[in-house]
Amino acid sequence: MKNLRVLFLWNTAGALVPIAEWLLNNGHNAKIIMNKQFDVFGQSSNSRASKMVGSSKEYWIEVVRQLIKYDPTHIHVNSSLPSLVLARILRPTTPIVFQYHGSRIRYRESVHEETELADKVIVSTPDLSDYGEWYDRPVDEMFYYRGNRKVRTALMFYGTHFMKDLRKDAKKWCEERGLDLTIVERGTHENIPYSQMPTFLSQFEYFLDFKGYGDPRAISRLAIEAYACGCKIVSDTDPSRIITDYKLPTAEIYFDLYTSLRNPQFSPRRLAVAFRGLIRWASGQLSKPPSKPQEFY
Asked: Which of 34, 161, 222, 263 is 20–30 Å from 244 (CA)?
């Protein structure tokens, strides 16, 4: 197959960076469009594939420009329904993958009809498979054990957007096992730049993935990154189990996904749905990308 040109629109928690980097490393083209106001930890700006813009207005102008100028062979939209609408209007016969970020479903408990505009709908964790096919999140190659691990230590990240506040549960779990617990609160002065995350994660023996998902199959992306740095994962859904056998995904599965999609035929009905979505968006009825940066991890 000829070289791919994949255009990535929006990039929640930097999820698309490993995919874009894999494509670039294997002779393909990839471009990520992201608003830097929502890249507070630097996940997107860390990638050579990223085109960062400074405001929402600039984001939409750049999306339109790249949809026309870049002439993508495939489009991958990450959780931004308006981006999906614009992509389908401007590229009616280009294969589009729409990826739900977990919080889009867990918090809003609704799936919008605009997802029928995509040729493939995917989700990030297997517990959400009712809404799309599960494709696990690959890890950036910079995540590996950097040394200086301290034994009998545990790490937990907490954010106000978590399903439940399980900090007391985490403290109890560690006290029962004689572990020294560190809790980092997202959205505060304790934020750690993404480039420093591998070194930070490598210091801990355990990573407590206590986010209140309620399903043992739901492992957060940060937990996967911690695992890549040598941490043992503990989920709040089954804290008696220490996860040491997680199979790290590779970005190549996304290449296989893109190449499996055929160019869709022009569909007046699809275009009508897209314009309906555009009208709803303009009137404020269509969900916009998350408005709070702390939702992004």
From this structure: 161
